[in-house]
Amino acid sequence: MIKSYFEFTDEMLERIEKFYDMHINATLNLTAIKDKDSFYTKHVLDSFLLFTEKKHLLKGKIGDIGTGGGFPGVILAVMYPELNFTLVDSVAKKCRFLEDAVKELGLTNVEVITSRSEDIKNRKFSTILSRGVAKVEQMIKYTMNLADKDCVWVLYKGENVKDELAAAQSILEKKRLEFINVRYDTPIQRTYTILSSSADNDRLR
Hints:
By secondary structure, this protein is of the alpha/beta class. It has a single domain (about 5-200), classed as 3-Layer(aba) Sandwich (Rossmann fold). It is about 35% helix and about 25% strand. It contains 7 helices and 7 strands, in the order ααβαβαββαβααββ. The protein has helices at about 10-25, 35-50, 75-80, 90-105, 135-145, 160-165, 170-175; strands at about 60-65, 85-90, 110-115, 125-130, 145-155, 175-185, 190-195. β1, α3 and β2 (about 85-90) form a beta-alpha-beta unit. The chain is globular, with a radius of gyration of 16 Å. The two termini are about 30 Å apart.
């Protein structure tokens, strides 16, 4: 079903299929979703749907913070081989799985870092992705040290993100960040919250 949303090459589809197989056969339980159709809808499509309309958000060095099982970072790295992705997670077992996956899939545009985001030094990203890791206020605090001056955050949220944004109002004002929400109700239910500097918010449009 994902072929309706993007012009995948055969190689891309094979890599995503292999990634699904790796998840199903992993000794480490990275996802409760084992059914193939659900995996493709709730993990794969969810990872990239926003960027079928807003590809321009993916720019420069891209960090996937708290990547877990490799979503959205691995899927986007397969789809956009011209971009470079850094997958960050504090759980060593997950990172070892991802390192094996990157090697097995033959991805040359991905690096994996085992660390808490706030402990990373000397790294800056132009795009920060985070899927279901922490509330908006916490994510800003955890990743501000990783943000380049023109950084855009894409946070994968639920329909109740308004409450999180209200709670984050103080830090949004302090850091001069603006946001928009892009909501999908079908074929997935997802709100993508996109943050950007008030002084450079062209990427929000």
